[in-house]
Model the fold of this input.
Amino acid sequence: SNEWLSQFFGDHLYRNCIITTTLCWLPQYIIRFPGVIPYDVWQSIAMHLGYTEITTQHPLIWGAMVGYLTELGVKIGINWLAPLSICLIQHILGLLIVAYTISTLKKFGFNSSILGGVLTFFIILPPMSLYASTLYNDYFYCLSIMLLTIELVYYLYDRDTYFSGYRHMILTALAVFGTV
Done:
């Protein structure tokens, strides 16, 4: 089984992690299609539309994205455009960050059993699959903090790679930006 895991986390690590996670999260998406909108999201939409005052409780960038997609959906007659679009964005970002996390662990020498355990953890962890199929501003915080943590690991333990190009600095900036 360890040989199978080594092959799974081999050359096609990103593809294998993304496909496996998507298949395991698929029931959550089917149950919640086109996406669940909790109270916080309604507050963000109301804030964007000017019905409530702007507060720092809801991320401004996320609220604007939800608000503009809601307005667009209403204008073109597809009321579920915002929930579906945001769930897709959340899903793609979540998959990429999970795969990037596992890739980083592999780069730092963790064996395939540990990588398999981490992937299993992300697959069965209820907040990951639940948040990916529900419009939660907290999910963007979670993903941003995960990404920032990975970039801090590179900064602290492999500065040559961190400073070898702009990729890690851009990802760090995006992670910080995602918490705004």
